[in-house]
Amino acid sequence: MEEIAIHLETVRSHLSQFEGSYIAPEGCEAHRYNVKRLGGIYWYNKLTAAEALFEPVVKEEKVRVIHLSYDDDPRNREGRLGIERRNRLTQIRTQLQMAEAALERAAALASAPLEDERVGSSS
Hints:
The protein is an alpha+beta fold. It contains two helices and three strands, in the order αβββα. It has a three-stranded antiparallel sheet, with helices on one face.
């Protein structure tokens, strides 16, 4: 149990790295697309969602797409890191839920009464 407490504290301390960082909402993904102009083909990136999830810059209601500019743009790098952070946190949540379920089973085993094999037998 002490080792579990140590690991839980380690997880808790490492989660602080996500504080204050952009975390992409569930249901959005990054896409790379191109635009053809007279000067050639230009590649850009965007975050898209099936529903309006993002706070707009100009409009008043939420929007489904945020443009992240070209590959090396800081907005694109941060948007993609936000997806990576979200995915990592989702995996951590899943593992913690599995650990919680295992601990609930362990608690049930620990609290279950032991049956005395001698009771009810005719020896």
